[in-house]
Amino acid sequence: MKKLMFAAGFAALSLMACNKKEDASSLIKDGASTTTETTTTSTTTDGVTETSSSTSAQTGFPKIAFNETTHDFGELKKGSKGEVEFEIRNEGTVDLVIIDAKASCGCTVPEKPTEPIKPGKSAKMKVIFSANSAGLQSKNITLTTNTEAGSEVLTVKANVTE
C-alpha cells in the first residue's frame, strides 16, 4: 500500500513538473532584446594618437529558422540510438539565444548551443533519441528562445522494431 501511494505521489509530481511553461519574452525587458556594442579605435599620425569610440545598439527580436523542424529516423531497432543535428539560423538583426531545450521524454536528449547565434550565422543542435519502446514514436523538443514567440518546437520520429 505504501509503495502504491509513493508511486501515485511521484507520478503526480512528475506531471506537474512537465507542465511548467517558460516564456522567453517575459525574460526580456520592455518586450524586445537589446544588445549594445562599443568599438574603440586608435590611429597615430605624425606622433599624435587619436582615439575614437562608437557605440551601436541592436533592438528587436531575432528571427529563427531551421534546416528542418521534423526529422524522421525511419526504422530503428529497439535498444539502438538515432542522432540528428538540427541547423538553427538567425535571420534577424540581433543575437539569438537558445535559453533552454527540453524534450518531451527522457529518451530524447537535446544539446543546445551554448553561445548566442549572431545575425546571419547558424549553429548546430545535436539530438539523441534512444529507441527504448517498440512502435511508432514521435518526440518533441521545445526550445525556449529570445524570439518574439518565445518558444519553438522540433520533432523527431521513428518506427522502432523489435
From TrEMBL:
Residues in the signal sequence: 1-17
Stored Gene3D superfamilies: Immunoglobulins
Biased composition (Low complexity): 33-56
UniProt key word Zinc-finger: no
Region (Disordered): 31-59
Pfam families (alphabetical): DUF1573
UniProt superkingdom: Bacteria
Alphabetic keyword roster: Signal
Protein name per the record: DUF1573 domain-containing protein
